[in-house]
Amino acid sequence: MGDKTILTTFQNERHGAQNVNHCSQNAAQLISAAKVFQNVHHGAQNTEPPQNERQARELAKAPPEEQAEVWIETQERTQITQL
């Protein structure tokens, strides 16, 4: 193999590994978002749940038992600023 072929092979392998890491990170974020959605749904049943993974990702920073309360407070603050 020539130097260019070896370099191309290495780059392809590295790119493949990066894709796997990206996929596993994305999967972990989606799983975390699903857990947050469940916590909010069970803790605040009369409240609209997070609308997307990005919102849930922020809520995941709070302890699970506080996520519903944090979400309710966030919605209340958002409603006040929209008035």
Q: Could you explain the architecture of this structure?
A:
- This protein is an all-alpha fold.
- The chain has one domain (3-82).
- It contains 3 helices and no strands.
- α1 (3-43) crosses α2 (53-59) and α1 (3-43) packs across α3 (67-82).
Q: H/E element string?
A: HHH
The structure class reads mainly alpha
**Helical proportion, percent range:** over 70%
Compute the number of strand runs: 0
Q: Overall 3D geometry? A: elongated
Using only C-alpha atoms, the radius of gyration works out to 20 Å
- The total of helices stands at 3
Distance between the termini: 67 Å
The description of the largest β-sheet is: none
Low-confidence runs: none
The whole-number mean of residue pLDDT values reads 79
- The fraction of residues in strands falls at under 5%
Tally of discrete structural domains:
1
